[in-house]
């Protein structure tokens, strides 16, 4: 043990001396060359393994020895052996290369979206329509090691969370024009009318916008969810009620507080006391996938790519 401590001190001293004399720097390729010679115990075989000339290999080993400040190899006519210093350097060189290779693999996997995490925000409409689940299922199958976190919120909250960096991607009805946020329209959904089960419109073959003008309207409270109000722009403000979530809207309808224009995917929600009727003459509701502009995270870019391909297909 004492001999090894002396050798380590000698390496430190020789390193200081070598840098003072030559301002040389150890490179990873020097370590690779040294490991090859140490394992092959022959310069010729090591050069063939590295696909370089023997003279080049010898020159690089000499450069490494100059950097260390002393001989690493004992050269004989028959074989090459490690010096005490070389014996100390070999496991450290292997460890350094292994760590470097691991770091490169980790970074490449992260850039490809194979490692890391992704935080996805969504509104209830995106989940009920199957868009969110389909995209995430495809993403998970392609990248099983990525950790996926989900957060349900109203569109206005999702927009704020994107800007603040709380989430990475948002699945939502149109968020409006928000600086720093880019959105792609993923699908469009027809609107329907949700009414109390005992309302005259319950069971109607269709309801028009004109039919709703005199009805109390329940809409999402968020300004970014203005599509629900825009569809019924002629409704007077005193007739408007608001709720902060999809289920909140349906709960108010069930309570008899009014009617609501909602995406047709909500028909799958069997809320007691709520009936649905087709709506004519209304624009389709756009569902978007939004992210921060200039996003560089591999996981985010990969989810956006998968979603775009699924939408196109």
UniProtKB/TrEMBL annotation:
<keyword id="KW-0805">Transcription regulation</keyword>
<keyword id="KW-0238">DNA-binding</keyword>
<dbReference type="InterPro" id="IPR000847">
    <property type="entry name" value="LysR_HTH_N"/>
</dbReference>
<protein>
    <recommendedName>
        <fullName>HTH lysR-type domain-containing protein</fullName>
    </recommendedName>
</protein>
<dbReference type="InterPro" id="IPR036390">
    <property type="entry name" value="WH_DNA-bd_sf"/>
</dbReference>
<dbReference type="GO" id="GO:0003677">
    <property type="term" value="F:DNA binding"/>
</dbReference>
<dbReference type="GO" id="GO:0003700">
    <property type="term" value="F:DNA-binding transcription factor activity"/>
</dbReference>
<comment type="similarity">
    <text>Belongs to the LysR transcriptional regulatory family.</text>
</comment>
<dbReference type="Pfam" id="PF00126">
    <property type="entry name" value="HTH_1"/>
</dbReference>
<dbReference type="InterPro" id="IPR005119">
    <property type="entry name" value="LysR_subst-bd"/>
</dbReference>
<dbReference type="GO" id="GO:0032993">
    <property type="term" value="C:protein-DNA complex"/>
</dbReference>
<feature type="domain" description="HTH lysR-type">
    <location>
        <begin position="26"/>
        <end position="83"/>
    </location>
</feature>
<keyword id="KW-0804">Transcription</keyword>
<dbReference type="Pfam" id="PF03466">
    <property type="entry name" value="LysR_substrate"/>
</dbReference>
<dbReference type="InterPro" id="IPR036388">
    <property type="entry name" value="WH-like_DNA-bd_sf"/>
</dbReference>
